[in-house]
Amino acid sequence: MPVIELHVMDGYDDDAKKRLCEALTDAVRIVLPAPPEAVTVMIHEMQPAGYMRGRQHRSAAPALPDPVTLVRTYLSAMEAREIDLARDMLGAGFAMTFPGGVRMTRLEELIDWAAPRYRFVTKTYEGFDALQSGGEAAIVYCRGTLSGEWPDGTPFDGIRFIDRFEVTGGLITLQDVWNDISETKGAT
Amino acid sequence: MPVIELHVMDGYDDDAKKRLCEALTDAVRIVLPAPPEAVTVMIHEMQPAGYMRGRQHRSAAPALPDPVTLVRTYLSAMEAREIDLARDMLGAGFAMTFPGGVRMTRLEELIDWAAPRYRFVTKTYEGFDALQSGGEAAIVYCRGTLSGEWPDGTPFDGIRFIDRFEVTGGLITLQDVWNDISETKGAT
Amino acid sequence: MPVIELHVMDGYDDDAKKRLCEALTDAVRIVLPAPPEAVTVMIHEMQPAGYMRGRQHRSAAPALPDPVTLVRTYLSAMEAREIDLARDMLGAGFAMTFPGGVRMTRLEELIDWAAPRYRFVTKTYEGFDALQSGGEAAIVYCRGTLSGEWPDGTPFDGIRFIDRFEVTGGLITLQDVWNDISETKGAT
Amino acid sequence: MPVIELHVMDGYDDDAKKRLCEALTDAVRIVLPAPPEAVTVMIHEMQPAGYMRGRQHRSAAPALPDPVTLVRTYLSAMEAREIDLARDMLGAGFAMTFPGGVRMTRLEELIDWAAPRYRFVTKTYEGFDALQSGGEAAIVYCRGTLSGEWPDGTPFDGIRFIDRFEVTGGLITLQDVWNDISETKGAT
Amino acid sequence: MPVIELHVMDGYDDDAKKRLCEALTDAVRIVLPAPPEAVTVMIHEMQPAGYMRGRQHRSAAPALPDPVTLVRTYLSAMEAREIDLARDMLGAGFAMTFPGGVRMTRLEELIDWAAPRYRFVTKTYEGFDALQSGGEAAIVYCRGTLSGEWPDGTPFDGIRFIDRFEVTGGLITLQDVWNDISETKGAT
Amino acid sequence: MPVIELHVMDGYDDDAKKRLCEALTDAVRIVLPAPPEAVTVMIHEMQPAGYMRGRQHRSAAPALPDPVTLVRTYLSAMEAREIDLARDMLGAGFAMTFPGGVRMTRLEELIDWAAPRYRFVTKTYEGFDALQSGGEAAIVYCRGTLSGEWPDGTPFDGIRFIDRFEVTGGLITLQDVWNDISETKGAT
After folding, report:
1. Is ipTM > 0.90 here?
2. Residue F42: its chain B contacts at CB < 8 A?
3. Beta strands C102-104 and D3-9: pairing type?
4. pTM for this structure?
5. Looking at CA atoms only, how far is residue C108 from chain B in angstroms?
C-alpha cells in the first residue's frame, strides 16, 4: 500500500539507487505491516538547475560507500594481516573493544594482543545487519563463527562471534567485538 | 537535499508517523551524505475511498509495535522473572542461543541453565539499534553491561553483553546472546 | 507498476471516488499490460482555498451521475411504461434508432411503433460497458436478451439485443438499438 | 481542474503515452463534469534503477497494441478473406456469435455460414468505442453500415451493424455481431 | 501548462493560501509566457506529525501580514496623524528618505519637516506593487497622486508620488519617497 | 519547511530555471516566515508526449526575457542615445510619464523635452525590483542617483530617481519616472 517518492539530485549510480530503494522499503516495513510487494519506491532525479534550497542551487554529494561492503573489506584485510590497507579504512578517533573490555586504538596493539590467544582466526559469516543511526554514524553488525588454531596448533571452529562497527563518512570509527572464545576455552 | 514523500492510508497515530519519518530519514542517510537538516519527509495520508490497488479499495492495517519498546519490555519482564508476561511476547518457533552456543526454546530452560551461573543479573543499557531486514523480521540489537551476583553472592558489574533479537509480526522469534561472563570468570 | 495520482477538489462522495479510481485503473490497463494488483490509484483532495487556476479559486462541480445507473433506470422506466419518468432523463436533441434504421425522437412514437411488434418485452442484462468519448458524451452499451410476448400472445425469450446510449451532462441524447427480433421471426 | 499524474517505467513510445494521456483524461471526465481544457495529465517516467516494488526492481512490459487498430486490421483481413492473417489475431478460446445467436469458433465455419447469405459484404465504419473492462479484456465496439451483394447478385447497402470484441493480451477472444440484415430482407 | 504544488504545514487561513496561490502563479508567469488560465496551483497541507526535517517535527510559524495591507494601514495612520499607531508599525532601524534626499528616523521629525511644506496632504492611490526581495525584506511600492493645501491655504491636487517600503517580519524598516511637489511648486 | 514542485515542459535553459526557482522561493517567503534555507524548489520537466491538457499535447513556449535585463539594456541604450536600439524594445501603446506629469509616447519627444533640462545624464543604480502583476505586465522598478551636467555645464550628481516600467511579452509598454531634479534645482 505505501508509496514512497524520493526526490534526489541526478547522478547517483544504479547501486546507490538500489540501496536507497531497499532502505526506504525496509524503513516503512519496520512500522507498517505491509507485505513487501505492496511497498513501492519511486526515485525522481532532479537536474541541479531544477533544484534550489535557500535560493541556491545545490550539487549532489557522492554517495557514501555501502557500509557492509566496507566492513567486509576491512575484516578481510585484517584476516590477511594487510594492516596498511585496513588502517586506511579507519577514521579519526578509531577505537576497538574486545572481549574482556580490552580497548585499543591501533591495529598493531590488536595484533600483539591476539598473538598469545590464537595462531590465526578466520571468520565465517552468518549475516550482516546495517542501519543508519540518528546521528552521523552508520552501524554495521556482522556475526558468524570463528575457526583457526590455538597457539599450540590445535584447530578450533564454530565459535560464535559478533562485531559492531560504526562508520562515519565512509570510515570505520568504532569496532566492538564479542565472542565465545573464552567460553569455549573454559569449557575445555 | 533529499525530499521523501510517503503516501499511506489515513489513520496512523503520531507515534507511528514519527517512527516512519525517522526511519525514512535514516534510510536515505545511509546512502547519501546529506546533513540531517537537509532531509525532508512529508507524509500524505489517503482516505480509503481515495486509494485503490488492483481495482480494490484497501484499508490500513494497524501499525506494528516499536520493536525496541517490545524488546525492552521483554527484557524487563525476564529480569523481574515475570515469565508469563515474557512468554506472551514470543512468537511461534522462538529459539534463543546463549554463550557457548547453548540453544533453548523455552524460558524455563533458560532459568534452569542460568541458575548455577549467577544468582541474578541486571542489564544496564548502552544503546539499542533496530532495523527491518529484507525479510519478515525486524532486528533489534541491545548492548550494555551486566551486573549482579555470582552464585556465591559475590557481586559483579560492568560485564559487556550484546543481544540480537528478531521480531516478526510484533512477537520475538529469536534471541542471540553474547557476553563477557566467561571471559570475566576466567580472568578471576 | 503504474501509480496514478489524481488531484481533485475536496467534496466528492465515496461512490464518485470509487468510480474515479476504477476508471483510472482501467484507463492505464488498456495500454499497459500491468496486472491489476500492480496498478495503484491515489486521490489527493484539495480544499478550494488551496487550489487556483488562472489566479482564481475554483469550486468543485457536482459529480456526474453514473451513466450505467442512468441507463438502467431509463430502461426500467421504459419497460414499466413510465413514460414521464423516462422522458425526464432525455436531453435536448434526443434521437433513437431501432432495427431497420427507424429513427424516432419521441417516446410516444416508439410506443406506437412497437405496438404491432410485441405485446411487451423484458430485458435480461448480460452486461454493461461504459466509457467517456473524447467529446462531451459518455457512451453506455447494454446487451443481453429479450423476452416477452408476440402480438398474438406467443411467448418468446433469449433474443439477443444490444443498445448504445450517449449521455451528456447526465441526460440521454442518443439511443441506438440492434436485436435479433427479425432474425427470430424470420426463422419461425 | 483535475490534475492526473501517472508514474510509469521509462521507455514507452509517444503513441503509447498519447493513448495513456487520452484514456486518463476520459476516465476522469466520465465522473467529473470538467471541461476538457481543465484536465491535465502529466506522465513521470521512471528509470528501472529508480523503481522498486516488493524490494525488487521491475522492468517495463511492452505496451499493448491499440485494440481499435487491432480490430480494424482484423476486420479488413476478414473482408479480404485473408483468413490466415485474421486467424493469427485470435486468442485461445475464441468464439463468435452472429445474428440469430449462431455461435462459431473457427473462421472457416463463419465463411461457410455466410456463403448462402451474401456474396460479399463491406463495412463502412461510423465509429469505434474502446474501453478496458475491469477484468483482463479490453472491449472494442465497432458500428456502421454494411454494403455488398445478396447471393443473387442484387446489391445492398446502408444496413446497420454493430460488433463487440473482447481483446486479451493483444488477441481477439470474442466477437459478437448484431445487424439489420434479417430486418432488411424481411422488409423486401 | 505549468502546475505548481506547494507543500506547507497545515493551519494557514484562506487568505494566506490565496496570497500563496497568487504569488506562485505570478512567480511562474514572470518567466513563462503561460496564459493565466494555464497556471494551476495546488497546496498540500501537512500535519505536523507527518512532516520532519532534520529528524525533527516542525510546527508552522504564523503567516506574515500582507505587506500591502500593512503599508496602507500605516499611510492612513500617518494621514490621520495617528502617530502612535503608525510608530507601532515600524521596525528596528527604521529610516525614511524624502525628496531632496532628506533622511529621517523618527515620525516627529517628518511632521516638523512637513509643516512648512503643506498644511495637509491626502494620497489617492493608483496602485500597489509588492514583492519579496531575495533577502529578508518584502518590498511594497505605492503610487498615485497627492492633494491637499499649501501652507497659505491654496489647494493642490494631482501631484504624482511614489513610495517604496521595506517590510521585515511584519514591520516597516524603510520608506523612500519621491514626488513632484517641487516640480509643481517650481512651475507656479 | 515549504516544498515547491513545479511541473513544466522540458526544454527551458538553466537561466530560466534559476529565475523560476528564485521567483517561487520569493513567492512563498512573502507569505510564510520561512528562513530561506527551509524553502526547497524542485522542477519536474515533462516531455511533450507525456503532457496533455484538454486531450491535446502542448509544446513549451520560449521563456520570457528577464525583465530586469531588458530594462537595463533599454536604459543603457537611452543613455548612449542609441534611439533605434531603444525603440525596438518598446511595445504597442508605449507611453512614458516624466516629472511634472509630462506624458510622451515617442523617444524623440523625450529627447526634445530633456534638451533644455540637462546636457546629459547618467544613472547610477542602487537596485532593481521586479514582479509579475496579476495581469499581463511584469513590473520593473529601478532606482538610484543621477549625475550629469546642467545646460550651463555645471556638473551635478547624487540626485535621487526612480523609474517604474511595465513589460508585456518582452517589450516595454510603460515608463514612469520620478526624481529630485526639480527639488535640487529649487534648492540652488
Report:
1. yes
2. 3
3. unpaired
4. 0.93
5. 42
